[in-house]
């Protein structure tokens, strides 16, 4: 029986991964298992009889003698973590348990130890520690407030930036409902939204457009951008709020909004007053000189009936012709000042009339207008589009020497698009098309489109034709129109 137990024990020692070593009272090695061979790199033959201090690191000369003294007094050593030096000279981190050995009469004869290699475990725990301190550093140094909240809205943690934002020391926030950081008026809605988030969590990268605010400890509030994230822990979900004070950004936005509003208003007034003036002059021309010249023409007819000899004369014919030509050019001027159709029948109709009027010049190319509009551009928007198209179409007539010109009117993305494409000679636009000195067409078009909050693109190449495109937002005139 005893022999069996001894054999079993020997088998355990043989097969153990741990280093199992026994020494005599002085510390000379008496047994050295395969685990010790693997761990320290020495074979049993090499070390039996040598002193166990061969494993001692040079910077700890007193450690092994101390342990031996304790064992000599009959004490045990449990899970003592230290470093040993392998045959290769490399350090091995170990956890050592050692106990005294006695003979059959109970006399101390030596000691035995079991050493477990904890290098890997130590390295893992160092890595863990490092990543923990990295995370902690991130948390402490983050310029944004980071607040963790549980599913019920109770604050679990808050970083130092939170204190600067809200005036609460982080420790004071833990355990309190997150609504203490929300302005009173928004608390009810916030709690409901929070519950909604917990039931359907999703990342919110940016809360800038939501008009959110935070409430400080002193009751004052600030404009906040709050992004949200979440992660799972054993007890449920942690919702993360990343908070930034955007008071200044929001004030700048507001300022910008006001400026562009003012600009639109100004443009709207400019367009309106210009067009009003043109309309007034057109009406005046119609009511006064055109009426008078028409009456004159009628009288001339009557005169001719009463004096047939006059009617046959060359002077009379020339007079009539001059008169009709004057009326025609006044009508053309009226049309140019303010196309009637724009007010009466809308943009597409006015553009058709424009094309037709231009077509009365001999050199005007074949033209086509594709009208995809579903709504009629309001007031100044229509006028602006018309004036831009007018310049583009006149340029085609004057410069392009094209055989076709195609107009497209389309709608979308909050505005109207107009394209005028010809297959004429094109021109060298060197990056940005500009008007030559003393000419305002292209430059004026681009400026006009920009002021209206839209854009104008000119795409042209010598011999390849020219395409001019504008986009004008539908709400150009702003809330006053
Ligand atoms: N569709 C086109 N085809 C060919 N050349 C063009 C076309 N549109 C413009 N250009 C060229 O670009 C130049 C600048 O055009 P812009 O409209 O600025 O001036 P303009 O038409 O000459 O004068 P203004 O418009 O002031 O009466 C033109 O002189 C012409 O050379
Ligand atoms: Mg021009």
Structure in words:
The protein has 481 residues and is of the alpha+beta class. It is 46% helix and 24% strand. The chain has helices spanning 2-15, 34-40, 44-47, 63-72, 119-141, 160-166, 170-173, 187-199, 247-306, 308-311, 314-337, 340-344, 347-359, 379-400, 441-451; strands at 19-24, 29-32, 77-85, 91-102, 108-117, 145-149, 155-158, 212-215, 221-233, 236-245, 366-371, 404-412, 415-422, 455-461, 465-473. The strands form three sheets. The chain has a five-stranded antiparallel sheet, sandwiched between helices. The chain has a five-stranded antiparallel sheet with strand order 7-6-10-9-8. The protein has a five-stranded mixed sheet with strand order 11-12-13-15-14. A hairpin with a 3-residue loop joins strand 14 (455-461) and strand 15 (465-473). The chain is elongated, with a radius of gyration of 47 Å. It binds adenosine-5'-triphosphate and magnesium ion.
Coarse structural class: alpha+beta
Percent strand:
15-25%
Gross geometry: elongated
Count of strand segments = 15
From the coordinates shown, what is the CATH architecture of the largest domain?
2-Layer Sandwich
Percent of residues in helices: 40-55%
Described by strand count, sense and barrel closure, the largest sheet is: 5 strands, antiparallel
Task: State the CATH class of the largest domain.
Answer: Alpha Beta
Termini gap: 109 Å
Overall tally of domains: 4
User: How many separate helices?
Assistant: 15
The third-level CATH topology of the largest domain is Heat Shock Protein 90
For the largest beta sheet, what order do the strands appear in spatially? Answer: 2-1-5-4-3
CATH superfamily of the largest domain: Histidine kinase-like ATPase, C-terminal domain
């Amino acid at each position: 029986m005893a022999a069996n137990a001894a054999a079993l024990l020997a088998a355990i020692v043989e097969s153990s991964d741990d280093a199992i070593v026994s020494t005599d009272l002085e510390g000379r090695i008496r047994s050295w298992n395969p685990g010790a061979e693997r761990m320290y790199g020495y074979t049993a033959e090499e070390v039996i009889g040598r002193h166990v201090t061969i494993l001692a690191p040079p910077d700890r000369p007193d450690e092994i003698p101390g342990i031996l003294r304790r064992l000599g007094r009959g004490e045990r050593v449990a899970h003592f973590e230290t470093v040993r030096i392998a045959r290769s000279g490399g350090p091995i981190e170990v956890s050592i348990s050692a106990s005294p050995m006695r003979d059959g009469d109970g006399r101390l004869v030596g000691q035995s130890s079991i050493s477990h290699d904890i290098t890997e475990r130590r390295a893992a725990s160092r890595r863990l520690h490092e990543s923990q301190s990295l995370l902690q550093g991130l948390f402490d140094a983050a310029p944004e407030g980071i607040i963790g909240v549980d599913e019920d809205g109770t604050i679990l943690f808050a970083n130092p930036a939170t204190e600067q934002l809200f005036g609460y020391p982080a420790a004071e926030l833990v355990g309190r409902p997150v609504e203490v950081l929300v302005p009173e008026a928004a608390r009810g809605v916030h709690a409901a939204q929070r519950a909604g988030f917990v039931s359907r969590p999703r990342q919110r990268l940016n809360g800038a457009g939501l008009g959110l605010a935070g409430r400080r400890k002193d009751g004052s509030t600030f404009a906040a951008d709050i992004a949200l994230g979440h992660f799972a822990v054993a007890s449920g979900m942690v919702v993360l709020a990343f908070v930034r004070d955007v008071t200044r950004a929001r004030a700048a936005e507001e300022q910008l909004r006001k400026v562009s509003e003012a600009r639109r208003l100004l443009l709207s007034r400019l367009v309106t007053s210009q067009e009003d003036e043109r309309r007034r002059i057109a009406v005046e021309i119609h009511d006064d000189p055109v009426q008078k010249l028409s009456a004159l023409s009628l009288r001339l007819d009557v005169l001719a009936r009463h004096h047939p000899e006059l009617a046959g004369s060359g002077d009379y014919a020339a007079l009539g012709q001059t008169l009709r030509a004057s009326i025609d050019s006044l009508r053309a001027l009226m049309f140019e000042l303010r196309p009637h159709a724009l007010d009466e029948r809308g943009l597409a109709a006015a553009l058709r009339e424009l094309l037709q009027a231009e077509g009365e010049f001999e050199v005007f190319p074949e033209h086509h207008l594709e009208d995809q509009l579903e709504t009629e551009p309001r007031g100044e928007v229509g006028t602006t589009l018309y004036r831009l198209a007018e310049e583009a179409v006149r340029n085609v007539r004057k410069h392009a020497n094209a055989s076709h010109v195609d107009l497209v009117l389309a709608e979308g993305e909050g505005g109207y698009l107009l394209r005028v494409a010809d297959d004429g000679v094109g021109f060298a636009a060197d990056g940005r098309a500009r008007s030559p000195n003393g000419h305002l067409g292209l430059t004026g078009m681009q400026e006009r489109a920009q002021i209206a909050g839209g854009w104008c693109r000119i795409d042209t190449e010598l011999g390849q034709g020219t395409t001019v495109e504008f986009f004008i937002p539908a709400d150009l005139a702003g809330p006053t129109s």
